[in-house]
Amino acid sequence: MKKFLIIAAILSVLIMLLVLTTNSRRMTMGGGDIWIYRNIEELSSQATDIVRVEVLGSRVRRISTALPPSSFREREIVTIHRLRVIEVFKGSEESGSVMEVMQPGRINRRQTENYGLYDFATGEDLILFMYSFDYDRLPAVLLTLHQAVYRVVSSDDGSVEIENYSEFNNFTLTMQDLERIADEYFGRYP
């Protein structure tokens, strides 16, 4: 049994390395598909919205995730985070507006099976890579596990550093990257 677990662990690492050394790939973990991107350019090209936000709060609720024309109404537990938009690098959100992003949720400290659930604290300053639905009823979702959230740390002198929110993210994101993305999307950095 111990040999089987070791072999399974080695195979998992090899598959992850294979995925990371090729173009973005879909991978199945825990019954769900996740996307792993090779670089910031791939990640930003797939995001409908890239924003800097302040976390205003979170709530847990059940929502219907079925989209028309489906008549099947599946209800899922999600955590919905309310966010104030500070800066927009890509997408249709506006600075100062309040938006929502959802993740698989929690009830009584239990969570649905999810390998990338983030616990956002009220007041946190974050950069999010998201996918927004054309269908207004659903909040936006984070684009991918581990690579879609960055923490903004401001120092006393006014300078800003961007840190990976997930220990599994090997990307380095800079303000210059975000300004370049905004330049490409808006034609100039707003």
Report on this structure.
The chain is an alpha+beta fold. The protein folds into two domains: 1-36; 39-186, Beta Barrel (OB fold (Dihydrolipoamide Acetyltransferase, E2P)), CATH 2.40.50. The protein is built from three helices and eleven strands, in the order H-E-E-H-E-E-E-E-E-E-E-E-E-H. The chain has helices at residues 2-20, 40-46, 175-186; strands at 25-29, 32-36, 49-64, 75-90, 98-104, 106-107, 110-111, 125-131, 140-142, 149-154, 160-164. The strands form three sheets. A five-stranded mixed barrel has the order 3-4-5-9-8. A hairpin with a 7-residue loop joins strand 4 (75-90) and strand 5 (98-104). The chain is globular. Mean pLDDT is 76; it is low at 4-24, 27-31 and 69-73.
List keywords for this structure.
190 residues; alpha+beta; OB fold (Dihydrolipoamide Acetyltransferase, E2P); five-stranded mixed barrel; two-stranded antiparallel ribbon; 20% helix; globular
* Helix percentage: 10-25%
Task: Give the averaged pLDDT, no decimals.
Answer: 76
- Which structural class best describes the helix and strand composition? alpha+beta
Tally of discrete structural domains: 2
Envelope shape:
globular
Question: Radius of gyration, rounded?
Answer: 18 Å
**CATH topology description of the largest domain:** OB fold (Dihydrolipoamide Acetyltransferase, E2P)
Beta-strand proportion: 35-45%
